[in-house]
Every structure is written in C-alpha cells, then in structure tokens.
Amino acid sequence: MNYKQLYAQYFLEYKHISKYVKNLRRQLKYADPPDEREVKRRVSILYSICLDLKHTSEYLKLCERRDLKDEY
Asked: Mean pLDDT across the stretch 27-39?
C-alpha cells in the first residue's frame, strides 16, 4: 500500500476544505440572522470533515514510517 500517496491526497483535501471553511467563517460575519444559522451549521459539518481528513492523513503518515521501519 502506498501510504505516502494516500497521505498526500487526504492532506490536499484537508487543505481545500480548510480554506473553504475559513471563507464561510468570513461570510458569517456579514450574514443576515436567518442565513447565519445555516452558515453555522455548514461550518460545523465541514469542520468536522476537515478534522477527520487531517487526523487520517496524520495516521497514514505514521503508517508509512512504520512500514519503512519494518523493511529494514
């Protein structure tokens, strides 16, 4: 299994979603009260996904190191 490639893919998706969440948080400052609730809900869901991607990528990076250690 190519952990390095998987790590890179997960980390790239994490960076994309992270930027999107930052943009939504900026929009939240200027959102109307009816829209504010919806934007907060979206931020909450996407932030959760973002954290999952980050932690998964970190785990894959550790797996790669373990794999390399086992080879030697």
From this structure: 88
One-letter amino acid at 66 equals: R
Angle between helices 3-29 and 33-71 (to 10 degrees): 160
CA-to-CA distance for 47 and 54, rounded, in angstroms?
10
- What is the four-CA torsion angle of 31, 33, 35, 39, rounded to 10 degrees? 70
Q: Report yes or no: 10 and 60 within 8 Å, Cβ to Cβ.
A: yes
- pTM to 2 decimal places: 0.81
Residues ≥6 apart with Cβ < 8 Å to 24: 39, 42, 43, 46
